[in-house]
Amino acid sequence: MNLRKVGIIGCGFVGSSIAFALMQSKLYSEMVLVDVNKDKAEGEAMDISDGLPYAAPMKIYAGNYENLGDASLIIITAGVNQKPGETRLQLIEKNKAILDSIISEIKKTPFDGILLIVSNPVDILTYEALKISGYDENKVIGSGTVLDTARLKDEISMHLTVDSQNVHTMIIGEHGDSEVPVWSITNIAGVPLNNFCELRGYYQHEEGMKKLYENVRDSAYRIIERKGATYYGIAMAVTRIARCIVRDEHAVLPVSTVLHGQYGIDGISLSIPSILGKDGVEKVLEIDLNEEELRLLQNSADELKRLI
């Protein structure tokens, strides 16, 4: 295995944005782009390679599944895009069929790295990828709510006029309409959220939290209505996940991973805070949720199970 080799399957807006972000990150020395449209993959590789003199030496090229056998990370973004007014869950059947065909091709190679699912609905497709691949559970993960968590941090940051790096919070559950903000652990530099809000002159806490959550939950819909797709934010989120893996950071991120009784949930992949390192998910964390947050998380799991 080449620890500094990454493969990206799917060179649409999301895949090409991830490729560009990873090139700038300097995490890898080799990147393979795979797409059903070989010309598109070649064009993206050529275009991104033009910026290498201002980044770091890296081999970027369009390839096939055979070129992915020694990669340490394969990122799957291929699938049908979410259309205006369409939910992520409505993409299930189309993208499940695409994922099945991709996994069958990967399994023909000696690949033994980490499989990162980005295609939507990401939690359901992560579970599907685990089921049909037969790979170790810790090595099949989804990008989960890493992006949603960043969106919530940004919303809180703008609302309270404070650096987003001082905002500590998390969104868990489905990467979609039933996602759950964990307000009970949210703080700004150690100061509980409501206390900090009052320092800034805000006292309508429930109303404020509801608005912030709705802004995050509906963010993708608003972006898609305006420009047709979302891709820059998820590219940064995936780069953050890749950095955890390459640098063996043991960082905590809400990636999609299979659960076995945690939070009273079993037999489904869901976006849950997990310790992430070079071998993938090292440990799923059970953080202290209040009764309402736990109820909403379990409802989110039930909805995904029903659809599966």
Describe what you observe in this structure.
This protein has a domain at 2-142: Rossmann fold (3-Layer(aba) Sandwich), CATH 3.40.50. Helix content is 42%, strand content 22%. The chain is globular. β13 and β14 form a beta hairpin. The model has no long low-confidence stretch (mean pLDDT 94). It has helices at 13-25, 38-49, 92-106, 122-133, 146-160, 193-199, 205-217, 219-227, 232-246, 291-307, and strands at residues 2-9, 30-34, 59-62, 71-76, 114-117, 140-142, 167-168, 171-172, 180-181, 187-188, 191-192, 251-260, 266-277, 280-284. The strands form 4 sheets. The chain has a 6-stranded parallel β-sheet with strand order 3-2-1-4-5-6, with helices on both faces. With 308 residues, the chain is an alpha/beta fold.
Brief overview:
The protein is of the alpha/beta class. It has helices spanning 13-25, 38-49, 92-106, 122-133, 146-160, 193-199, 205-217, 219-227, 232-246, 291-307; strands at 2-9, 30-34, 59-62, 71-76, 114-117, 140-142, 167-168, 171-172, 180-181, 187-188, 191-192, 251-260, 266-277, 280-284. The protein has a domain at 2-142: NAD(P)-binding Rossmann-like Domain (Rossmann fold, 3-Layer(aba) Sandwich), CATH 3.40.50.720.
* Coarse morphology: globular
SSE ordering: EHEHEEHEHEHEEEEEHHHHEEEH
Tally of contiguous helical segments? 10
Q: What is the CATH topology assignment of the domain at 2-142? A: Rossmann fold
Topology, number of strands: 14
Mean pLDDT: 94
Strand order of the largest sheet: 3-2-1-4-5-6
Question: Which percent band covers the strand fraction?
Answer: 15-25%
- Roughly how many Å apart are the termini? 33 Å
> What is the gyration radius calculated from CA atoms?
19 Å
CATH architecture of the domain at 2-142: 3-Layer(aba) Sandwich
Major pleated sheet: 6 strands, parallel
**Helix/strand structural class:** alpha/beta
**Low-pLDDT runs:** none
Question: What's the CATH first level of the domain at 2-142?
Answer: Alpha Beta
Helical amount = 40-55%
**In the CATH hierarchy, what is the superfamily of the domain at 2-142?**
NAD(P)-binding Rossmann-like Domain
